[in-house]
Specification:
Number of domains: 2
Protein name: DNA-binding GntR family transcriptional regulator
Strand order of the largest sheet: 1-3-2
GO molecular function: DNA binding; DNA-binding transcription factor activity
InterPro entries: GntR_C, TF_FadR/GntR_C, Tscrpt_reg_HTH_GntR, WH-like_DNA-bd_sf, WH_DNA-bd_sf
CATH topology of the largest domain: Four Helix Bundle (Hemerythrin (Met), subunit A)
Keywords: DNA-binding, Transcription, Transcription regulation
Structural class: mainly alpha
Oligomer: single chain
Distance between the termini: 32 Å
Radius of gyration: 18 Å
Helix content: over 70%
CATH class of the largest domain: Mainly Alpha
Organism: Pseudomonas fluvialis
Shape: globular
Length: about 220
């Protein structure tokens, strides 16, 4: 495999490995050996080491002294902690959009994403559905105008994606729940109803966290 794209080589390697972890091809506590990755992808060992540091920063692997890199565990405590933080940050974004939109054209990106979510749900395309759900977040970034918030969420996305895939692969019907939640959130944003924005996102976080915890218990 040869990588040629605008992203750095290390970032591309990290994305490739992240996708394998998110899809469950690389299992929890499984070792990721630098030399094997180097040979499989035909890249330098230095680039692989840099990619592993990126994955550690994104909470998908642990790099242990004298033991190397291994896929991080997804435990109930990790899931609970992740959702507590992520929903807090999502609320910050939701409030920023509710306070910041000025004209209908500001909301058009969200309406387009809403349509894509419905289409992805109808095709039962989990990968596209999860990516579209993250597009909601990215469309909100300009309203918040906070690079630290943006960087934090971008680094958490792989871990969030991992939980989404775990839950949706067992219960595809939950995509409809997400679509309904987003519709309610959009209504709250349009109405500039900050209480409703908080309520919708808190309920969403509690529901998703419980769903992922249930999926963990069923493994």
């Amino acid at each position: 495999m040869t990588f040629k794209a605008p992203d750095s080589l290390a970032e591309q390697i990290a994305q490739h490995l992240a996708e394998r972890i998110i899809r469950g091809e690389l299992k929890e506590r499984e070792r990721i050996q630098e030399i094997k990755v180097t040979q499989a992808l035909n890249v330098s060992r230095g680039s692989v080491r840099e990619a592993l540091l990126i994955l550690e920063r994104r909470h998908l692997i642990n790099i242990l002294p004298r033991r190397g890199a291994q896929v991080s565990e997804l435990t109930p405590q990790h899931v609970t902690s992740l959702y507590e933080l992520v929903i807090y940050l999502y609320i910050k974004l939701g409030l920023a959009v509710a306070r910041g939109w000025q004209q209908e054209s500001d909301l058009q990106p969200f309406l387009a994403i809403q349509q894509r979510l419905v289409e992805n749900m109808q095709r039962e395309d989990i990968n596209a559905f999860v990516e579209s759900s993250f597009d909601v977040m990215r469309a909100s970034f300009p309203f918040a105008n906070n690079l630290y918030l943006q960087e934090t969420l971008e680094n958490l996305l792989p871990a969030i994606s991992r939980t989404y895939h775990l839950a949706l692969e067992r219960r595809k019907g939950e995509m409809a729940q997400f679509v309904n939640t987003f519709a309610s959130l959009l209504q709250a944003v349009i109405a500039r109803d900050e209480v409703a924005v908080r309520d919708v996102l808190n309920a969403y976080g509690e529901h998703n966290s419980a769903l992922v915890l249930m999926a963990l218990a069923e493994r």
